[in-house]
Amino acid sequence: MWQASIFDLSKKLNLMTYKQRNIMAYPLVHIVNSTDHNISGKVNYASAFCSDDSFTIGPKGEWTASSRGACLVTQVYADVNVAGKSVRATPYTSSGTSYSEFAVIETAGSFSVTRVITGVEDIDVGVLEAEPAELQK
């Protein structure tokens, strides 16, 4: 009985640790290739404790990182294969962002990596004020 309760406690601690890790994680980086070309590139993260991700995406394809944790993105760059030649897209750069949705786009013959905006974060919510203490639960 004593061993069973130690085992149960161990399982609960492992589950709690897993849930805590997920609470501390940013969304997985997701990149859409909107071009008609193959691309390859890299996602750079801010910390030496985070491993950078490399990706290869076919025309009109998508890629999602397998992990991210609490790593901020500092750069996403892509090389576009145009008629057998590698063309470097203008990279997305940041001092460190939690954003996770990016796209490689072509405009007027040049390529760029850009953040995908869903519209939710750009909605005008008016003036934000603290909720009165008596209404807080």
SSE blueprint:
Elements: H1 2-23, E1 30-33, E2 39-45, E3 53-57, E4 62-64, E5 73-82, E6 85-88, E7 92-97, E8 101-107, E9 110-115
Parallel strand pairs: 1-8
Antiparallel strand pairs: 1-4, 2-3, 2-5, 5-6, 5-7, 8-9
Summarize, please.
With 137 residues, this protein is an alpha+beta fold.
Question: Could you describe the 3D structure shown?
Answer:
The protein is an alpha+beta fold and 137 residues long. Strands 2, 3, 5, 6 and 7 form a five-stranded antiparallel β-sheet that branches. The chain has a four-stranded mixed β-sheet with strand order 4-1-8-9, with no helix packed on it. It is globular. It has one helix and nine strands; from the N terminus they run H-E-E-E-E-E-E-E-E-E.
Summary tags:
137 residues, alpha+beta, Immunoglobulin-like, 5-stranded antiparallel beta sheet, 1 helix, 9 strands, 16% helix, globular
Question: How would you describe the shape?
Answer: globular
Strand content: 35-45%
CATH class of the domain at 25-118 reads Mainly Beta
- Element string (H = helix, E = strand): HEEEEEEEEE
User: Could you list the spans in which at least 5 consecutive residues all have pLDDT below 50?
Assistant: 9-13, 15-21
Distance between the termini: 40 Å
CATH superfamily of the domain at 25-118: Domain of unknown function DUF5300
Quaternary structure type: single chain
Return the CATH architecture of the domain at 25-118.
Answer: Sandwich
Please name the CATH topology of the domain at 25-118: Immunoglobulin-like
State the helix count: 1
- The radius of gyration over CA amounts to 21 Å
Structural class: alpha+beta
Biggest sheet, open or closed, and with what strands and sense? 5 strands, antiparallel
> Helix content range of the residues, please?
10-25%
Mean pLDDT: 81
Total number of β-strand segments? 9
